[in-house]
Amino acid sequence: MIKVGLLTLPFNFNYGGVLQGYALKSTLEKLGTHVTIISRRQNRSNIIKRSIVWSKWESFKILQYSRSLRVFPLVSFEHFKRKNINEITPNIFSDKKLNSIVDKHAFDAYVVGSDQVWNINASPNLYNHYLSFVTNPNAKKVAYAASFGKEEWLYPESATEECSKLAKNFDAISVREDSGVKLCREYLGVNAAHMVDPTMLLNADEYRKLYNDQHIAPFDGKIFTYILDENEDKRIFIEKVCSILKQNSFDLKSESLLHKLQTIKRRHFPTIETWLKAFNDSDYIITDSFHGTIFSIIFNKPFIAIANKDRGLARFESLLKMFQLENRLVENLESVPQSLLKTPIDWDNVNNIVESRKQMSIDFLKTSLFAN
Fold it and tell me: What keywords were assigned to this record (predicted)?
């Protein structure tokens, strides 16, 4: 059995980030590989700071065993990881530790992705995400649905030169956005295929299994609003949609730690399972989140995706173009026509595209990992 080291972004309080890692690991295991997620975090040269950060993450591993403490997001996320992902290395805060873990596991192949692993402002160690630490010449190197986060090139000249050298050592490269294909060609000098986000490699029933054994209270509404960057315009738009569709809305907020502590007795903070069930149980979704848009598609829910330029518009445009849903992305909230809100989505067409793209992605992984 091929031993695969999967290198993605660190698992923090990010629903899409954790679920894309879970989905890619699950898919690779279905292909007959043994997968270990390499938990690479930012280098901490100061031993005191490194000890503090290490202790923080280790404490979550202990606290996750207490059901009452899972109201804290990072504790509940840790519980999800330990229950559903399992094979994760200890958190890595130095090059020395990374090399030690790699030597111990002796991986036959490395898969980088998905998420914004090639975004210079998101990666904890950009060169590592181009597999700079791999010394075994026989190990397969694959990038799956790697994302630059933006459609413009952000690397300085020195990083461009180094990453170009490293990228040329990959056996196969795929990116998450169509703009990434162009960036790879023009700045890294390599060809890249365009693949779906790994969350789309699993179907809705596979996600439902994650919460079917959970006791999750019903939601107070049928329009799920998953908004990362709240403002008055979005609030007014949500009220308008609720009025037109004659339904109440509900949200699952990610609030400040202080507010969580103040309201801990009367608020339940959403676990990953609760978040998934919100998509399943809603009749309509309004979101400015990339993965919020993806899970609207996975669960076949009519949705409006609000353009989120600060977090990268290219990924929304690429995703919705792939599934012929470009009209669901809106920028000017004041001019959204009522007709769009009530226009049904041709889910048969969308699901056919999803299945076709899913198979293409699985074939890419098979060929990349198993072909001689």
Answer: Transferase
